[in-house]
Amino acid sequence: MPSTSFAAFKNLVPQNTPLGSESRMLHDIVNRRNLVSVSKTTPVSEVAALMESHNIGSVMVLENETPVGIITDRDIVIRCVCSQQDPKTCQAQEVMTNSLHFVFESDGIFECIQKMRDEKIRRMPVVDLQGKAVGILSMGDLLAILSKEFFDLTYAATRIGDGSADEDKLKAA
């Protein structure tokens, strides 16, 4: 069986998939319009209501559009509810995680995955080159993206041998 180079295989992948481009950057994934954020003084009860209404597990805490913290549903339970604070008077700054690790929107998916793994975190703020908040990526978001990529890869691989792919492209490589 002839060996197939990755470059030849890549030509068979639909061009609207990340394998069809050189590298998938975070700015291709993060949707700026879906960023849910609060200020440091927002009551935790409002933070929880935002999470519920948007069906999300975390919100970013911003100051002048720059991330200064992140609050997860777990932060609310552990740092507010379990310590018997009133969510209506407890502020975001009292429960947020303020030692943020972030990635730039120009970074690739694999840089984000490596940083999440190295820092042992499941949610990563994404910022632009000026440090302004762009979005949050969760491990679940990345798994969904990679699952689609594996599906596309499997689809392309199964089409190579059934005559439906242009096998001349493979032979030329």
SSE topology sketch:
Blueprint: H1 6-10, E1 37-38, H2 44-54, E2 58-63, E3 66-72, H3 73-81, H4 92-95, E4 103-104, H5 109-119, E5 123-127, E6 133-138, H6 139-160, H7 167-172
Parallel strand pairs: 1-2, 4-5
Antiparallel strand pairs: 2-3, 5-6
Short description:
Helix content is 39%, strand content 16%. With 173 residues, it is of the alpha/beta class.
Write up this protein.
The protein has seven helices and six strands. It is α/β, with parallel strands linked by helices. The chain has a three-stranded mixed beta sheet. The radius of gyration is 21 Å and the shape is elongated. Mean pLDDT is 81; it is low at 1-22.
Features:
three-stranded mixed sheet; CBS-domain; elongated; alpha/beta; single chain; 173 residues; disordered N terminus; 39% helix
The poorly predicted ranges are: 1-22
> Major beta sheet, specifics?
3 strands, mixed
Give the proportion of residues in helices: 25-40%
CATH class bucket? Alpha Beta
Average pLDDT number: 81
Radius of gyration: 21 Å
N-C termini distance: 14 Å
Q: Within the largest sheet, what's the order of strands? A: 1-2-3
CATH fold-level topology: CBS-domain
Which geometry do the CA atoms define?
elongated
What is the string of helix and strand elements? HEHEEHHEHEEHH
CATH H-tier superfamily: CBS-domain
User: Please, how many domains?
Assistant: 1
Structural class comes to alpha/beta
CATH architecture designation: Roll
Proportion of beta-strand residues:
15-25%
Task: Give the tally of β-strands.
Answer: 6
Number of H- or I-type helical stretches: 7
